[in-house]
Amino acid sequence: MSRQLGQAAEQRACAELQRQGLRLLQRNFSSRYGELDLIMQDGAELVFVEVRLRRDNRHGGASASVSAAKQQRLIRTAAVWLQQHPQYATVPCRFDVVGYSGIETGPEMEWIRAAFEAD
């Protein structure tokens, strides 16, 4: 899938989450472990958001594509971000996944709050 489609999905997810009351802190934070698509604040909670895009739901949809290995990379990257932003060190965190599936038919958004936890 093209990078352009991925960026459009991230933009769309960000706008929808902001409509739901979340506040954007940073986009596309990279470390040697990977990238965090969106870092947002939901009230007193810090939210690391992974945005996924799939053409269809044949293999479980976009959200199902976040494997255990991908989760570990996201957790490690979040730890790096927290080290660089110590003001958030004591803030509760969660990992959300926003998935868009069915590009050809008009993508439907699935938002899974607290999709996985750090060990």
Textual characterization of the structure:
With 119 residues, the protein is α+β, with helices and mostly antiparallel strands. The protein has one domain: Trna Endonuclease, Chain: A, domain 1, CATH 3.40.1350. It is built from 2 helices and 5 strands. It has a 5-stranded mixed β-sheet with strand order 1-2-3-4-5, with helices on both faces. Strand 1 and strand 2 form a beta hairpin. The protein is globular and about 40 Å long. The mean pLDDT is 88.
Order of helices and strands: HEEEHEE
DSSP E strands, number: 5
Largest sheet: 5 strands, mixed
CATH topology: Trna Endonuclease, Chain: A, domain 1
Q: State the distance separating the first and last CA atoms.
A: 31 Å
Backbone shape: globular
- The CATH class is identified as Alpha Beta
Spans where pLDDT lies below 50 across 5 or more residues = none
Radius of gyration: 14 Å
* Average pLDDT metric: 88
